[in-house]
Design goal:
This protein is an alpha+beta fold. Helices cover 40% and strands 29% of the residues. Helix 1 packs antiparallel against helix 13 and helix 4 packs antiparallel against helix 5.
């Protein structure tokens, strides 16, 4: 959970993909038709009516559908082949594993699908080996599933009856989910939608279900106070003066003082921030032109604006725009006396206004150049971190949210995210409202975590070393409970194909279940087990913490402790091992910790938790910023939480 919040914070600090808030995953599921009123959220009754109406809209699949599915598979296989060719010996091993020659022969023109070859390759793509979670394998696996489904549907006399039965089941599942929107019911609806999608049936119904039950499922909000504190800083520096104006070479020493502040620009579709600089430079200057030497005191007032904005490609900055006004006081003019002295004085008087205008233009150019260079370095660094730490890893595994956007008001910048594949639902309800006075808040729906873990872990085998690598990609140090113990054998878990990990947020607490089909320790293989831990949030004088309710439960799927069923010797052994290991992971108490920014952001101080709301599938955590050198009082924390 903490790693997920850390990831959200990093993504918000780096950049966001701009997508309009009205876009839902349903609109990308199918482009083959939209229903009347497609921009409105349907009621449950309308969805049930659509389930019945869809029975009359059954579309037998044809050779054209098969050709289209084959073309999509061929494209995915081509991309996969290019990737494997790059990896040399490793790619050759993958090709051997996938029976590459026989497999690629299946996508050639005029080759009939061979069910045995397609089944074998799909099973191998679904085997869960490390690396099969990369997007080029994922895309090939999904395209192969589609091709097999279409090939099996053509000429299937039972398809219409099975389709009608599927719609009846979906209607019942929608009723159950509407009454109790929990992860299990969401999974059943997702399975039904996935089957309809594979069979290329009922696109309007699929889109309507997503419109009702796929709202954004993660939010991060940062107040304008935090943004201002992050950007605001005084400017007080000594700078040399070198310039040439109207043929006069000018040197001197200037003292610049002012401040840099932030200004949020309201925008419903993206995060927009202006960095504003207001400063004054006072300088003692000496100008030389031929025999004449002019000494002066110049006052330059500069106001500059640098606008930042974000889209899916990264963080961007518009060119700086600045305005300067210069006023000068001539303190002495020396040109050798006589006529030359009078000529010099007259020229200085005549050219003073023009010289001030040119000097102001040069000041604007210098300010623009400096802000562009400094902000440009920051933008480049942010984009590099975003690409390496966020976008590329998620895109390479097909995990990037379908929606990921910023919105801006005068009071805050907010991140909105929606993650749901075509066979998944997102949030069934709207997110809770953030209390006024909150500096930082996270709102995460259980579907965000469940969808991400299903897409990333379903059917996969995760070894202990690989898990350590993943965790270390988000945090600087491996948590103590995940560090290998002395004498501990290497271990691994093969996750369930449907629900590898599920989290439920309800009743001021949460429950997490990890489902493994098989477990490994050393050379031993153990049977399926479910690992469950439940927590309740409590507040005391030390803050907010989640307290585990009872022991960690480790039992085979479907096993009822109060029945007369007995565990096998293997089940007893793995239960003992898993209970010991996961009791360290699921500790008895988990404090809601403060967030302490590092590096250049330490000046922000500490974000101390002020409240936790956990209900209706949502977990909202709110924070108050405490500047460095200060400590939040309990009363201040309570006030911030209201």
């Amino acid at each position: 959970m903490r790693q997920f919040v850390t990831l959200l914070l990093f993504m918000a600090a780096a950049v966001a993909v701009t997508v309009t808030a009205e876009t839902t995953v349903a609109q990308s599921v199918s482009s083959k038709g939209t229903s009347p009123g497609a921009d409105k959220m349907p009621s449950l009754e309308q969805l049930l009516e659509m389930c019945q109406a869809a029975k009359q809209q059954f579309r037998p699949l044809t050779a054209e559908d098969l050709a289209q599915a084959k073309a999509e598979l061929a494209t995915a296989v081509k991309v996969l082949g290019r990737k494997l060719n790059v990896y040399g010996a490793t790619g050759t091993t993958w090709k051997r594993y996938l029976n590459w020659d026989a497999f690629t022969a299946q996508v050639r023109p005029n080759v009939e699908p061979d069910p045995k070859i397609l089944h074998t390759v799909l099973r191998r793509l679904e085997a869960g080996h490390d690396g099969l979670d990369l997007i080029w394998f994922v895309d090939t696996r999904n395209a192969l599933r589609q091709y097999r489904a279409v090939a099996g549907a053509i000429g299937n006399d039972d398809l219409k009856a099975n389709y009608d039965q599927l719609l009846d089941m979906l209607a019942e599942q929608l009723k159950a989910f509407n009454a109790n929107p929990n992860p299990d019911n969401a999974q059943r609806i997702g399975d039904a939608l996935g089957q309809l999608h594979l069979l290329e049936q009922a696109p309007e119904l699929i889109a309507a279900v997503h419109r009702r039950y796929s709202h954004p499922n993660a939010f991060l909000q940062v107040s304008s106070n935090v943004i201002e504190a992050a950007v605001e800083q005084p400017v007080d520096e000594e700078t040399p003066v070198y310039d040439t104006i109207l043929g006069t070479r000018i040197t001197g020493q200037g003292h610049t003082f002012g401040s840099t502040v932030a200004d949020l620009v309201p925008d419903p579709n993206q995060g927009v921030l202006d960095i504003l600089f207001n400063g004054t430079t006072r300088s003692n200057n000496v100008g030389r032109n031929g025999p004449a030497t002019v000494r002066s005191i110049a006052t330059t007032q500069v106001a500059a604006r640098k606008r930042l904005w974000m889209d899916y490609t990264g963080l961007h900055a518009f060119p700086t725009g600045s305005r300067a006004v210069v006023s000068t006081q001539i303190t002495s003019i020396y040109a050798g006396g006589g006529i030359a002295q009078r000529v010099a004085r007259n020229q200085v008087a005549q050219q003073k206004s023009q010289a001030e205008q040119i000097s102001a233009q040069h000041a604007e150019q210098r300010t623009d150049r400096r802000m562009d260079e400094e902000v440009g370095k920051m933008v480049a660094q942010a984009n590099q971190q975003y690409e390496e730490k966020v976008r590329r890893p998620l895109v390479n595994r097909g995990l990037f949210p379908q929606q990921f956007m910023f919105t801006t008001t005068q009071d805050a910048i907010s991140l909105l995210a929606l993650r749901a594949a075509p066979d998944q639902l997102a949030a069934a309800t709207r997110a809770p409202t953030v209390p006024k006075g909150t500096d930082l808040s996270t709102r995460i729906h259980e579907s965000m975590i469940n969808n991400m873990t299903q897409s990333a872990l379903a059917g996969m085998t995760l070894k202990d070393k690989r898990m350590e690598t993943i965790v270390l990609s988000f945090v600087d140090e491996l948590p103590e409970e995940l560090k290998p113990q002395e004498g501990q054998l290497p271990w691994a878990i093969n996750f369930d194909r449907r629900q590898p990990v599920t989290v439920t947020f309800a009743d001021d607490g949460y429950e997490m279940i990890i489902r493994g089909r098989r477990f490994y320790e050393g050379t031993e293989t153990y049977p399926a087990m479910n690992i469950k831990a439940a927590y309740k949030f409590v507040r005391n004088g030390q803050g907010i913490k989640a307290v585990r309710q009872g022991d960690v439960e480790v039992l085979p799927p479907g096993f009822k402790p109060d029945s007369n069923d007995k565990l096998s010797a293997n089940e007893v052994a793995i239960r003992r091992l898993l209970t010991k290991r996961f009791s360290q992971v699921f500790k008895e108490e988990v404090p809601v910790e403060s967030i302490e920014p590092n590096d250049q952001w330490t000046r922000l101080g500490t974000f101390q938790p002020t409240g936790v709301v956990c209900k209706d599938g949502w977990l909202m955590t709110t924070y108050k910023r405490v500047p460095r050198g200060k400590t939040a009082t309990p009363q201040a924390a309570r006030t911030a939480a209201r």
